[in-house]
Amino acid sequence: MEILLHICCAPCSLYSWQALEEKGHHIQGFFYNPNIHPYREFKKRKEALHSLAEEEKRSIFIDQRYLLNDYLRKVVNREEMRCELCYAMRLEETACRAKEKGIEGISTTLLISPYQQHELLRETGGKIAEEYGLKFVYEDLRPGFRESMGLAREKGLYLQGYCGCIYSERDRYQK
Asked: Does this model's pTM top 0.90?
């Protein structure tokens, strides 16, 4: 199946892309992350992914827009639902792009992270894909997390220390 893979960052894409290709899928990448704060973090992640796409000759569309205001409008006063709302924003935009391109499936590199809510991702992705007449490809990619981070280090890619949102950044430093 052809899949439009939502990419949160270059390090998470390494193993995810490979694992999905090994399952026989044809992958195109899509970077769309309105949650990332601050702007310099957003820029570092875009640049790392652009570099990886060129190096590995991958077909990746990088949405250049910095849409933090859109993300904040969705989650303010609903912070307890922030991950659900964030997943929906990113996967809906991915589904919209997949539909435009005639791609039949979507997935996300968020599925590699042991820090993400997999059941919520599966449910949200499945619901959105169905609304767009697509398939959501769920694979538990967490076993490849350490390998993916190791590959990223070897390639000298930027490694971030949090999911990207302002709340995650706060939680990271409050510990």
From this structure: yes
Q: What are the pLDDT digits (tens) for 19-71?
A: 999 999 999 999 999 999 999 999 999 999 999 999 999 999 999 999 999 99
Q: State residue 124's pLDDT score.
A: 98
Token pair listed for 47: 């640049």
Distance between the two ends of the chain, CA-based, in angstroms?
Answer: 42
Q: What percent of the chain is modeled with pLDDT above 70? A: 100
**For residue 75, which of 137, 163, 144 has the smallest C-alpha distance?**
163
Contacts of residue 95, Cβ cutoff 8 Å, sequence gap at least 6: 106, 128, 129, 131, 132, 134
Give yes or no for a contact between 6 and 91, defined as CB atoms under 8 angstroms apart: yes
Rounded CA separation 101/111 (Å): 23
Tokens for 2, please give them: 């052809």
DSSP calls for 72-131: HHHHTT-GGGHHHHHHHHHHHHHHHHHHHHT--EEEEGGGG-TTS-HHHHHHHHHHHHHH
Domains, the chain: 2-6+29-174 (3.40.50)
Q: Which residues lie below 8 Å from residue 159, measured CB to CB, with a gap of 6+?
A: 11, 149, 152, 153
